[in-house]
Amino acid sequence: MIGLSHYLILSALLFSLGLYGVLTRRNAIGVLMAVELMFNSVNINLMAFSHYMMDTAGLAFCIFVITVAAAEVTVGVALVLSVYRNRNLIDLDQVAELKG
Amino acid sequence: MSEAIAFYLLSAMVLTSAWSVVRNENLFHAGLSLIVCFVGVAGIYVNLDAPFLGAMQVLIYAGAIAVLLLFGFMLTHDLMKVKQERNQHAAGIFGALLMASLLIGVILNAQWFPASGQLVKFGVESLASRYMKQDLVSFEVVAVLLLASLIGAVVIARKEEGGRE
Q: How many domains does chain B have?
């Protein structure tokens, strides 16, 4: 029988994989992909709680998260394109002007 | 029983494709694995009795976000040299293992509540009435957010005219 904790563990593993990707990728687009994995794990969490608590709050939050993720990735790709056009690089280690 | 079989198959699909997303040296192949991962997560939603959310997942994530990321990759990269090197390998493995063990430890030790509340149908009707009653303000704020991100993306990504140096 599949319970709440099965879904939560799947979500935890997916979140950790996304964290690993964020920490190790150097390409900005690769980092954005890993962030999308983390968004998806959060959505699985919300939806599992919604299902097992029999409440639509999780479903509503989940759609908000999908909307905000779409806005985030739009602006993120626009920023990457802008940096690439002005500086001709995409490696995040080289975009370090704000480093103190 | 069929729910359990579907859960384990979908979990294997999601986790293997997510592993490919973070590990594949060819970032284009990583983006294609991302689509497989999103479709697997949509199957998880259908398994959780939310077919509408599964459809939205396929439309927005697999259809729009993954394609946008792939286009971003193709526009910013010379496709002849797609091999990606990694850095901070040890820190990445340590951070991810620490996070996974913390989360799984908490999940396995917590006392989860029994199901409470009355059974609601996870249809579009219940979602629509929630958005039009309790969550009306958030709904409108999200609409403004979408408009702002649309305009912001156009402003950020367009070419500067007249050479404002």
A: 2
DSSP string for residues in B81-142: --B-----HHHHHHHHHHHHHHHHHHHHHS-PPPP-S-----SHHHHHHHHHTTTHHHHHHH
The answer as to whether B92 is a domain residue is no
Q: What pLDDT score does B37 carry?
A: 96
CB-based contact, A14 to chain B, within 8 Å: yes
In a domain, B135, yes or no: yes
Distance of CA B60 to the CA centre of its chain: 9
Token pair, residue B157, equals 């990504």
- Extents of the domains making up chain A: 4-91
| Min distance B80 CA to chain A CA atoms (Å) | 15
Asked if residue A83 has pLDDT above 90, the reply is no
- CATH code of the domain in which B34 resides: 1.20.120.1200
Say which of A33, A47, A81 has its CB closest to residue B75: A81
Measured between beta carbons, the chain A residues lying within 8 angstroms of B138 are 64
Question: What is the separation of C-alpha B45 from the centre of its chain, rounded to a whole number of angstroms?
Answer: 12
Q: Do A12 and B104 touch (CB under 8 A)?
A: yes
B7 and B67 share a domain?
Answer: yes
Compute the average pLDDT of residues B117-142. 82
Segment B10-22, tens digit of pLDDT: 999 999 999 999 9
Q: Does domain A4-91 fall into CATH 1.10.287.3510? A: yes
B34–A67 CB contact, under 8 Å:
no
Tell me the pTM.
0.89
Greater model confidence, A59 or A93: A59
Q: Domain span at residue B129?
A: 121-165
Query: In the predicted model, what is the mean pLDDT of chain B?
Result: 86
